[in-house]
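Sanity check. The docking grid for flavin-adenine dinucleotide depends on where the pocket ends up, so I'm generating a full predicted complex first rather than guessing from homology. Inputs follow.
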Amino acid sequence: VATAARTQVAIIGGGPAGLLLSHILHRNGVDSIVLERQSRAHVLGRIRAGVLEAGTVALLREVGLGARMDREGHPHDGSAIAWEGRPRFFIDTQKFTGKRMMAYGQTAITEDLYAARDTAGGEVIDEADKVQLHALTARRPHVTYTKQGASRRIDCDYVAGCDGFHGVSRASIPASVLKTYEKSYPFGWLGVLSETPPYPDLCYCYHSRGFALASMRTPLLSRYYIQCELDARLEDWPDERFWQEFKARCPPEMAERIVTGPSIEKSIAPLRSFVAEPMQYGTLFLAGDAAHIVPPTGAKGLNLAVSDVFYLSRALIESCRSGKTHYLERYSDMALRRVWASARISWWLTMLLHRFPDETPFEERMRFDQFDYLRASEHAQASLAEQYVGLPFEA
Ligand SMILES: Cc1cc2nc3c(=O)[nH]c(=O)nc-3n(C[C@H](O)[C@H](O)[C@H](O)COP(=O)(O)OP(=O)(O)OC[C@H]3O[C@@H](n4cnc5c(N)ncnc54)[C@H](O)[C@@H]3O)c2cc1C
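Predicted complex below; grid placement will be based on this.
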Protein backbone atom coordinates (compact mmCIF):
# COMPACT_ATOMS: atom_id res chain seq x y z
CA VAL A 1 0.00 0.00 0.00
CA ALA A 2 1.53 3.28 -1.16
CA THR A 3 -0.10 5.73 1.27
CA ALA A 4 -1.55 5.19 4.74
CA ALA A 5 -3.58 7.59 6.89
CA ARG A 6 -5.08 7.42 10.36
CA THR A 7 -8.40 8.81 11.57
CA GLN A 8 -10.92 8.07 14.32
CA VAL A 9 -13.87 7.33 12.04
CA ALA A 10 -13.60 6.20 8.40
CA ILE A 11 -16.87 7.15 6.71
CA ILE A 12 -17.81 5.26 3.56
CA GLY A 13 -20.09 7.34 1.28
CA GLY A 14 -20.31 11.11 0.77
CA GLY A 15 -24.10 11.39 0.47
CA PRO A 16 -26.17 13.25 3.08
CA ALA A 17 -25.62 10.62 5.80
CA GLY A 18 -21.82 10.46 5.44
CA LEU A 19 -21.29 14.21 5.09
CA LEU A 20 -23.61 15.11 7.97
CA LEU A 21 -21.92 12.56 10.22
CA SER A 22 -18.49 13.94 9.34
CA HIS A 23 -19.72 17.50 10.00
CA ILE A 24 -21.22 16.72 13.43
CA LEU A 25 -18.19 14.67 14.50
CA HIS A 26 -15.89 17.55 13.55
CA ARG A 27 -17.95 20.03 15.61
CA ASN A 28 -17.38 17.73 18.57
CA GLY A 29 -13.66 17.22 18.12
CA VAL A 30 -13.78 13.78 16.49
CA ASP A 31 -11.89 13.46 13.22
CA SER A 32 -13.02 11.48 10.21
CA ILE A 33 -12.21 10.85 6.56
CA VAL A 34 -15.02 10.44 4.03
CA LEU A 35 -14.50 8.12 1.05
CA GLU A 36 -16.87 8.75 -1.86
CA ARG A 37 -16.89 6.59 -4.98
CA GLN A 38 -18.28 9.23 -7.35
CA SER A 39 -16.97 12.65 -8.34
CA ARG A 40 -18.27 15.62 -6.37
CA ALA A 41 -20.06 16.94 -9.48
CA HIS A 42 -21.93 13.65 -9.78
CA VAL A 43 -23.00 13.66 -6.12
CA LEU A 44 -24.15 17.29 -6.36
CA GLY A 45 -26.04 16.62 -9.59
CA ARG A 46 -28.37 14.02 -8.08
CA ILE A 47 -32.01 15.06 -7.71
CA ARG A 48 -33.64 13.19 -4.85
CA ALA A 49 -35.59 13.95 -1.69
CA GLY A 50 -36.87 17.33 -0.58
CA VAL A 51 -39.33 17.18 2.32
CA LEU A 52 -37.81 17.60 5.78
CA GLU A 53 -39.42 16.50 9.04
CA ALA A 54 -39.49 18.98 11.94
CA GLY A 55 -36.70 17.03 13.73
CA THR A 56 -34.46 17.15 10.65
CA VAL A 57 -34.98 20.91 10.34
CA ALA A 58 -34.19 21.42 14.05
CA LEU A 59 -31.06 19.28 13.84
CA LEU A 60 -29.73 21.06 10.74
CA ARG A 61 -30.24 24.42 12.50
CA GLU A 62 -28.57 23.14 15.66
CA VAL A 63 -25.42 22.05 13.79
CA GLY A 64 -25.07 25.37 11.95
CA LEU A 65 -26.62 24.31 8.64
CA GLY A 66 -29.89 26.25 8.87
CA ALA A 67 -29.12 29.65 7.31
CA ARG A 68 -29.66 28.88 3.62
CA MET A 69 -32.44 26.39 4.38
CA ASP A 70 -34.32 29.10 6.31
CA ARG A 71 -33.74 31.60 3.49
CA GLU A 72 -34.60 29.41 0.52
CA GLY A 73 -36.70 26.54 1.90
CA HIS A 74 -40.47 26.52 1.97
CA PRO A 75 -41.93 25.88 5.47
CA HIS A 76 -45.33 24.21 5.45
CA ASP A 77 -47.89 23.03 7.96
CA GLY A 78 -48.65 19.66 6.45
CA SER A 79 -49.75 18.16 3.15
CA ALA A 80 -53.00 17.83 1.23
CA ILE A 81 -54.64 14.69 -0.11
CA ALA A 82 -56.88 15.22 -3.15
CA TRP A 83 -58.99 12.09 -3.53
CA GLU A 84 -61.02 11.62 -6.67
CA GLY A 85 -64.67 12.37 -5.93
CA ARG A 86 -64.07 13.35 -2.27
CA PRO A 87 -63.48 16.77 -0.63
CA ARG A 88 -59.84 17.85 -0.26
CA PHE A 89 -58.19 16.69 2.97
CA PHE A 90 -55.22 18.20 4.80
CA ILE A 91 -52.72 16.34 7.05
CA ASP A 92 -52.44 19.22 9.51
CA THR A 93 -49.12 18.80 11.32
CA GLN A 94 -49.28 22.31 12.78
CA LYS A 95 -52.72 21.78 14.34
CA PHE A 96 -52.04 18.32 15.79
CA THR A 97 -48.34 18.56 16.71
CA GLY A 98 -47.53 22.30 16.74
CA LYS A 99 -44.67 21.51 14.35
CA ARG A 100 -43.92 22.60 10.79
CA MET A 101 -42.09 20.83 7.99
CA MET A 102 -39.80 22.26 5.31
CA ALA A 103 -39.44 21.71 1.57
CA TYR A 104 -35.72 22.02 0.85
CA GLY A 105 -33.97 19.84 -1.71
CA GLN A 106 -31.47 17.12 -0.91
CA THR A 107 -29.24 18.66 -3.59
CA ALA A 108 -29.14 21.95 -1.63
CA ILE A 109 -28.48 20.12 1.66
CA THR A 110 -25.59 18.25 0.02
CA GLU A 111 -24.17 21.55 -1.30
CA ASP A 112 -24.43 23.07 2.20
CA LEU A 113 -22.70 20.03 3.70
CA TYR A 114 -19.83 20.08 1.18
CA ALA A 115 -19.41 23.83 1.79
CA ALA A 116 -19.27 23.26 5.57
CA ARG A 117 -16.75 20.41 5.24
CA ASP A 118 -14.58 22.54 2.93
CA THR A 119 -14.66 25.52 5.31
CA ALA A 120 -13.58 23.31 8.20
CA GLY A 121 -10.80 21.71 6.13
CA GLY A 122 -12.57 18.34 6.29
CA GLU A 123 -11.19 15.47 4.23
CA VAL A 124 -13.65 14.15 1.65
CA ILE A 125 -11.88 11.92 -0.86
CA ASP A 126 -13.92 11.59 -4.03
CA GLU A 127 -13.48 9.06 -6.84
CA ALA A 128 -12.28 6.55 -4.23
CA ASP A 129 -12.41 3.22 -6.03
CA LYS A 130 -12.50 -0.39 -4.80
CA VAL A 131 -13.22 0.51 -1.18
CA GLN A 132 -12.83 -2.54 1.08
CA LEU A 133 -13.39 -2.89 4.82
CA HIS A 134 -11.01 -5.05 6.88
CA ALA A 135 -10.75 -6.51 10.39
CA LEU A 136 -14.18 -5.22 11.39
CA THR A 137 -14.33 -7.42 14.48
CA ALA A 138 -10.80 -6.57 15.58
CA ARG A 139 -10.00 -3.65 17.89
CA ARG A 140 -8.51 -1.61 15.04
CA PRO A 141 -10.25 -1.97 11.68
CA HIS A 142 -8.88 -0.50 8.47
CA VAL A 143 -10.13 0.46 5.05
CA THR A 144 -8.36 0.19 1.71
CA TYR A 145 -9.19 1.87 -1.61
CA THR A 146 -7.55 3.06 -4.78
CA LYS A 147 -7.33 6.61 -6.01
CA GLN A 148 -6.07 7.28 -9.54
CA GLY A 149 -4.74 3.75 -9.64
CA ALA A 150 -2.71 4.01 -6.39
CA SER A 151 -3.60 1.80 -3.39
CA ARG A 152 -4.24 3.57 -0.11
CA ARG A 153 -5.10 2.56 3.45
CA ILE A 154 -6.88 4.25 6.34
CA ASP A 155 -6.47 2.94 9.90
CA CYS A 156 -9.32 3.89 12.20
CA ASP A 157 -11.26 3.10 15.38
CA TYR A 158 -14.66 2.85 13.73
CA VAL A 159 -16.13 2.52 10.24
CA ALA A 160 -19.42 4.25 9.38
CA GLY A 161 -21.18 2.61 6.44
CA CYS A 162 -23.07 5.50 4.82
CA ASP A 163 -22.72 4.27 1.25
CA GLY A 164 -26.34 3.81 0.23
CA PHE A 165 -28.25 0.75 -0.84
CA HIS A 166 -25.66 -0.51 -3.37
CA GLY A 167 -22.60 0.23 -1.24
CA VAL A 168 -19.88 -2.07 0.05
CA SER A 169 -20.56 -1.68 3.80
CA ARG A 170 -23.69 -3.78 4.26
CA ALA A 171 -22.17 -6.35 1.87
CA SER A 172 -19.17 -6.62 4.25
CA ILE A 173 -21.36 -8.07 7.01
CA PRO A 174 -21.51 -11.89 6.88
CA ALA A 175 -24.87 -13.14 5.58
CA SER A 176 -25.20 -15.33 8.69
CA VAL A 177 -25.29 -12.19 10.87
CA LEU A 178 -27.64 -10.07 8.79
CA LYS A 179 -31.39 -10.48 8.56
CA THR A 180 -33.10 -8.59 5.75
CA TYR A 181 -36.77 -7.75 5.16
CA GLU A 182 -37.97 -6.66 1.76
CA LYS A 183 -41.12 -5.72 -0.13
CA SER A 184 -41.28 -4.64 -3.77
CA TYR A 185 -44.31 -2.73 -5.04
CA PRO A 186 -45.76 -3.44 -8.49
CA PHE A 187 -45.19 0.10 -9.82
CA GLY A 188 -42.69 2.97 -9.89
CA TRP A 189 -42.71 6.76 -9.80
CA LEU A 190 -41.98 8.86 -12.85
CA GLY A 191 -40.62 12.19 -11.57
CA VAL A 192 -40.15 15.52 -13.33
CA LEU A 193 -38.27 18.58 -12.08
CA SER A 194 -39.25 21.88 -13.70
CA GLU A 195 -38.27 25.50 -13.20
CA THR A 196 -41.82 26.62 -12.58
CA PRO A 197 -43.54 28.03 -9.48
CA PRO A 198 -44.83 25.06 -7.45
CA TYR A 199 -48.43 24.32 -6.59
CA PRO A 200 -48.85 26.03 -3.17
CA ASP A 201 -49.43 22.83 -1.14
CA LEU A 202 -47.54 19.61 -1.21
CA CYS A 203 -50.45 17.53 -2.51
CA TYR A 204 -50.90 13.74 -2.88
CA CYS A 205 -53.58 12.77 -5.44
CA TYR A 206 -55.45 9.49 -5.41
CA HIS A 207 -57.14 8.81 -8.73
CA SER A 208 -58.53 5.84 -10.64
CA ARG A 209 -55.77 6.52 -13.24
CA GLY A 210 -53.15 6.18 -10.46
CA PHE A 211 -51.31 8.22 -7.85
CA ALA A 212 -49.77 11.67 -8.46
CA LEU A 213 -47.81 14.06 -6.23
CA ALA A 214 -47.16 17.80 -6.52
CA SER A 215 -44.09 18.76 -4.50
CA MET A 216 -41.68 21.66 -4.37
CA ARG A 217 -38.01 22.45 -3.88
CA THR A 218 -37.82 26.28 -4.02
CA PRO A 219 -40.26 29.06 -5.01
CA LEU A 220 -39.15 28.52 -8.61
CA LEU A 221 -38.46 24.80 -8.68
CA SER A 222 -41.21 22.17 -8.70
CA ARG A 223 -41.12 18.40 -8.43
CA TYR A 224 -44.02 16.35 -9.81
CA TYR A 225 -44.52 12.59 -9.80
CA ILE A 226 -46.96 10.10 -11.25
CA GLN A 227 -47.29 6.41 -10.48
CA CYS A 228 -46.11 4.44 -13.54
CA GLU A 229 -45.74 0.84 -14.62
CA LEU A 230 -42.57 -0.97 -13.63
CA ASP A 231 -41.47 -1.32 -17.25
CA ALA A 232 -42.21 2.35 -18.16
CA ARG A 233 -39.49 3.94 -20.32
CA LEU A 234 -38.48 7.61 -20.20
CA GLU A 235 -38.54 7.90 -24.00
CA ASP A 236 -42.27 7.10 -23.92
CA TRP A 237 -42.91 10.04 -21.62
CA PRO A 238 -42.21 13.35 -23.39
CA ASP A 239 -43.06 16.38 -21.22
CA GLU A 240 -46.38 16.99 -22.93
CA ARG A 241 -47.63 13.48 -22.15
CA PHE A 242 -46.40 13.75 -18.55
CA TRP A 243 -48.24 17.02 -17.89
CA GLN A 244 -51.41 15.75 -19.52
CA GLU A 245 -51.39 12.62 -17.38
CA PHE A 246 -50.47 14.53 -14.23
CA LYS A 247 -53.36 16.97 -14.67
CA ALA A 248 -55.78 14.13 -15.44
CA ARG A 249 -55.06 12.74 -11.95
CA CYS A 250 -55.73 16.04 -10.09
CA PRO A 251 -59.10 17.60 -9.27
CA PRO A 252 -59.97 20.09 -12.08
CA GLU A 253 -59.46 23.19 -9.86
CA MET A 254 -55.97 21.95 -8.98
CA ALA A 255 -55.10 21.03 -12.59
CA GLU A 256 -55.95 24.59 -13.65
CA ARG A 257 -53.37 25.98 -11.23
CA ILE A 258 -50.45 23.74 -12.20
CA VAL A 259 -47.81 25.82 -14.01
CA THR A 260 -46.15 23.52 -16.54
CA GLY A 261 -42.80 24.00 -18.26
CA PRO A 262 -39.94 22.03 -19.78
CA SER A 263 -38.51 19.33 -17.51
CA ILE A 264 -34.91 19.85 -16.42
CA GLU A 265 -34.72 16.31 -15.04
CA LYS A 266 -36.88 13.23 -15.49
CA SER A 267 -36.40 9.83 -13.90
CA ILE A 268 -38.17 6.60 -13.02
CA ALA A 269 -37.68 4.89 -9.65
CA PRO A 270 -39.21 1.56 -8.57
CA LEU A 271 -40.76 1.52 -5.08
CA ARG A 272 -39.32 -0.75 -2.45
CA SER A 273 -39.23 -1.29 1.32
CA PHE A 274 -36.07 -2.86 2.72
CA VAL A 275 -34.61 -3.15 6.24
CA ALA A 276 -31.37 -4.89 7.29
CA GLU A 277 -30.82 -5.88 10.93
CA PRO A 278 -28.67 -5.31 12.93
CA MET A 279 -27.14 -1.99 11.86
CA GLN A 280 -23.84 -2.89 13.54
CA TYR A 281 -21.18 -5.53 12.96
CA GLY A 282 -18.12 -5.23 15.23
CA THR A 283 -16.69 -1.75 14.64
CA LEU A 284 -18.88 -1.14 11.55
CA PHE A 285 -22.06 0.93 11.95
CA LEU A 286 -24.54 1.36 9.08
CA ALA A 287 -26.53 4.57 8.60
CA GLY A 288 -29.06 5.75 6.00
CA ASP A 289 -29.88 3.90 2.78
CA ALA A 290 -27.02 1.45 3.46
CA ALA A 291 -29.32 -0.19 6.02
CA HIS A 292 -32.83 0.60 4.78
CA ILE A 293 -34.94 1.84 1.89
CA VAL A 294 -38.48 3.16 2.13
CA PRO A 295 -40.82 3.99 -0.74
CA PRO A 296 -40.82 7.77 -1.26
CA THR A 297 -44.51 8.09 -0.25
CA GLY A 298 -44.30 10.00 3.04
CA ALA A 299 -40.80 11.38 2.27
CA LYS A 300 -38.99 9.44 4.99
CA GLY A 301 -35.76 8.28 3.23
CA LEU A 302 -33.58 11.33 3.77
CA ASN A 303 -35.11 11.99 7.20
CA LEU A 304 -34.20 8.48 8.34
CA ALA A 305 -30.63 9.00 7.16
CA VAL A 306 -30.56 12.13 9.37
CA SER A 307 -32.01 10.38 12.42
CA ASP A 308 -29.52 7.51 12.08
CA VAL A 309 -26.74 10.10 11.99
CA PHE A 310 -28.14 11.79 15.09
CA TYR A 311 -27.93 8.49 17.03
CA LEU A 312 -24.62 7.41 15.53
CA SER A 313 -22.84 10.74 16.01
CA ARG A 314 -23.93 10.85 19.67
CA ALA A 315 -22.62 7.32 20.18
CA LEU A 316 -19.28 7.86 18.42
CA ILE A 317 -18.68 11.19 20.19
CA GLU A 318 -19.35 9.57 23.57
CA SER A 319 -16.99 6.70 22.80
CA CYS A 320 -14.18 8.78 21.27
CA ARG A 321 -14.30 11.37 24.09
CA SER A 322 -14.81 9.25 27.16
CA GLY A 323 -14.36 5.63 26.11
CA LYS A 324 -17.93 4.91 27.24
CA THR A 325 -19.96 2.74 24.88
CA HIS A 326 -23.46 3.13 26.35
CA TYR A 327 -24.92 4.64 23.14
CA LEU A 328 -22.77 2.59 20.74
CA GLU A 329 -24.11 -0.64 22.23
CA ARG A 330 -27.68 0.64 21.80
CA TYR A 331 -27.21 2.28 18.39
CA SER A 332 -28.68 -0.50 16.26
CA ASP A 333 -31.75 -1.06 18.46
CA MET A 334 -32.46 2.65 18.87
CA ALA A 335 -32.04 3.49 15.19
CA LEU A 336 -34.09 0.47 14.13
CA ARG A 337 -37.08 1.45 16.29
CA ARG A 338 -37.38 4.65 14.28
CA VAL A 339 -36.56 2.87 11.00
CA TRP A 340 -39.43 0.41 11.47
CA ALA A 341 -41.85 3.20 12.41
CA SER A 342 -40.96 5.05 9.20
CA ALA A 343 -41.02 1.83 7.16
CA ARG A 344 -44.55 1.22 8.44
CA ILE A 345 -45.95 4.69 7.72
CA SER A 346 -44.30 4.75 4.26
CA TRP A 347 -45.80 1.34 3.49
CA TRP A 348 -49.22 2.42 4.82
CA LEU A 349 -49.28 5.63 2.76
CA THR A 350 -48.12 3.68 -0.30
CA MET A 351 -50.96 1.18 0.14
CA LEU A 352 -53.47 3.99 0.77
CA LEU A 353 -52.59 6.26 -2.15
CA HIS A 354 -51.77 3.94 -5.08
CA ARG A 355 -53.78 1.79 -7.45
CA PHE A 356 -52.54 -1.81 -7.37
CA PRO A 357 -52.70 -3.67 -10.68
CA ASP A 358 -54.15 -6.94 -9.34
CA GLU A 359 -56.31 -5.73 -6.51
CA THR A 360 -59.82 -7.04 -5.91
CA PRO A 361 -62.92 -4.81 -5.61
CA PHE A 362 -62.91 -5.65 -1.89
CA GLU A 363 -59.38 -4.30 -1.46
CA GLU A 364 -60.34 -1.15 -3.33
CA ARG A 365 -63.33 -0.62 -1.03
CA MET A 366 -61.07 -1.09 2.01
CA ARG A 367 -58.85 1.72 0.69
CA PHE A 368 -61.82 4.04 0.27
CA ASP A 369 -62.95 3.24 3.78
CA GLN A 370 -59.47 3.93 5.19
CA PHE A 371 -59.60 7.36 3.64
CA ASP A 372 -63.17 8.09 4.79
CA TYR A 373 -62.23 7.06 8.33
CA LEU A 374 -59.20 9.36 8.22
CA ARG A 375 -61.37 12.27 7.09
CA ALA A 376 -63.97 11.58 9.78
CA SER A 377 -61.73 10.89 12.80
CA GLU A 378 -59.63 13.52 14.57
CA HIS A 379 -57.83 10.66 16.36
CA ALA A 380 -56.78 9.13 13.03
CA GLN A 381 -55.70 12.55 11.78
CA ALA A 382 -53.65 13.23 14.93
CA SER A 383 -51.94 9.85 14.61
CA LEU A 384 -51.04 10.41 10.95
CA ALA A 385 -49.85 14.00 11.62
CA GLU A 386 -47.58 12.81 14.45
CA GLN A 387 -45.93 10.24 12.21
CA TYR A 388 -45.80 12.44 9.12
CA VAL A 389 -44.06 15.32 10.91
CA GLY A 390 -41.56 12.79 12.32
CA LEU A 391 -41.38 10.95 15.64
CA PRO A 392 -39.03 12.47 18.23
CA PHE A 393 -35.48 11.15 18.62
CA GLU A 394 -34.98 8.95 21.70
CA ALA A 395 -33.02 10.38 24.60
C1 LIG B 1 -33.82 8.41 -7.45
C2 LIG B 1 -34.13 8.63 -5.99
C3 LIG B 1 -35.17 9.49 -5.62
C4 LIG B 1 -35.47 9.69 -4.27
N1 LIG B 1 -36.50 10.52 -3.94
C5 LIG B 1 -36.81 10.69 -2.64
C6 LIG B 1 -37.88 11.52 -2.24
O1 LIG B 1 -38.57 12.12 -3.05
N2 LIG B 1 -38.13 11.64 -0.91
C7 LIG B 1 -37.39 11.00 0.04
O2 LIG B 1 -37.63 11.15 1.24
N3 LIG B 1 -36.37 10.21 -0.30
C8 LIG B 1 -36.07 10.05 -1.61
N4 LIG B 1 -35.05 9.25 -1.94
C9 LIG B 1 -34.29 8.65 -0.86
C10 LIG B 1 -33.22 9.60 -0.33
O3 LIG B 1 -32.66 10.32 -1.37
C11 LIG B 1 -32.21 8.75 0.39
O4 LIG B 1 -32.87 8.15 1.49
C12 LIG B 1 -30.98 9.53 0.86
O5 LIG B 1 -30.20 9.89 -0.24
C13 LIG B 1 -30.15 8.66 1.81
O6 LIG B 1 -28.91 9.25 2.04
P1 LIG B 1 -27.62 8.35 2.25
O7 LIG B 1 -26.51 9.30 2.49
O8 LIG B 1 -27.93 7.29 3.22
O9 LIG B 1 -27.41 7.57 0.87
P2 LIG B 1 -27.00 8.12 -0.56
O10 LIG B 1 -27.59 9.45 -0.82
O11 LIG B 1 -27.30 7.02 -1.52
O12 LIG B 1 -25.43 8.32 -0.47
C14 LIG B 1 -24.54 7.22 -0.47
C15 LIG B 1 -23.24 7.66 -1.08
O13 LIG B 1 -22.31 6.57 -1.02
C16 LIG B 1 -21.60 6.50 -2.25
N5 LIG B 1 -21.12 5.13 -2.42
C17 LIG B 1 -21.83 4.05 -2.82
N6 LIG B 1 -21.04 2.96 -2.85
C18 LIG B 1 -19.82 3.35 -2.46
C19 LIG B 1 -18.59 2.67 -2.29
N7 LIG B 1 -18.47 1.36 -2.54
N8 LIG B 1 -17.53 3.38 -1.87
C20 LIG B 1 -17.63 4.71 -1.61
N9 LIG B 1 -18.79 5.40 -1.75
C21 LIG B 1 -19.86 4.73 -2.18
C22 LIG B 1 -22.62 6.93 -3.28
O14 LIG B 1 -22.01 7.40 -4.47
C23 LIG B 1 -23.37 8.03 -2.54
O15 LIG B 1 -22.81 9.30 -2.76
C24 LIG B 1 -34.72 9.03 -3.28
C25 LIG B 1 -33.69 8.19 -3.65
C26 LIG B 1 -33.38 7.97 -4.98
C27 LIG B 1 -32.26 7.02 -5.35
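Relevant for the grid: Residues 12-18, 35-38, 43, 48-49, 106, 128, 131, 162-164, 166-168, 267, 269, 288-289, 296, 299-302, 305 surround flavin-adenine dinucleotide (CB under 6 Å).
Also worth noting: The mean pLDDT is 96.
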